[in-house]
Amino acid sequence: xxxxxxxxxxxxxxxxxxxxxxxxxxxxxxxxxxxxxxxxxxxxxxxxxxxxxxxxxxxxxxxxxxxxxxxxxxxxxxxxxxxxxxxxxxxxxxxxxxxxxxxxxxxxxxxxxxxxxxxxxxxxxxxxxxxxxxxxxxxxxxxxxxxxxxxxxxxxxxxxxxxxxxxxxxxxxxxxxxxxxxxxxxxxxxxxxxxxxxxxxxxxxxxxxxxxxxxxxxxxxxxxxxxxxxxxxxxxxxxxxxxxxxxx
Length: 248
Known about the structure:
The chain is of the alpha/beta class. It folds into two domains: about 5-35, no CATH class; about 40-230, Vaccinia Virus protein VP39 (Rossmann fold). It contains six helices and seven strands, in the order αααβαβββαβαββ. The termini are far apart. This is Protein-lysine N-methyltransferase EFM5. Its EC number is 2.1.1.-.
């Protein structure tokens, strides 16, 4: 076979395919540049979850701004520079915490806030980001163990395996697991059908079903509930009776 024959068999992209390929690379480069800009600006300006498109294949469903802000405010309530807040798989709440700290806490001592998340786009938050894969629930920096005063967890999947491993992470992080203090707060947001499992897994922290129902920015077909170990102006424990405040 001659060299000319080899050349004849080399596939050649059509002009439309070449244009599509160029557009793909241009979009990729633009996205990389946008995240480089975010990395530089993350501590200086407020951010929106619009900066991070949902990936439904990764079970990403961001909270509505109202829900994310409310949960962030409850985690920050009464916090100071000694407080450690751990956000597990709930990046929209983390972003609102960062926004509140940027806009409202300029002259106040700030708590330490960690985001544990699988999506590496959130590395723009530098040292506040910790890569987290629920399949390896305890694969985290050792210095984080038993340090968290406040925890919020939104396990990515409605399966017993995922929920159980996320609870293992929360237990490992918690400063007061099994002996909750007045300042310790635990919030879990997940599907209604996980209710019996959640109350079992988090019983040592006295977590119960609340009256609050989180909302998502683009809606969600699954019924979603908020579970917590405290009551506040925004919610009470569901089915609260005369003995509801007694430890279980």
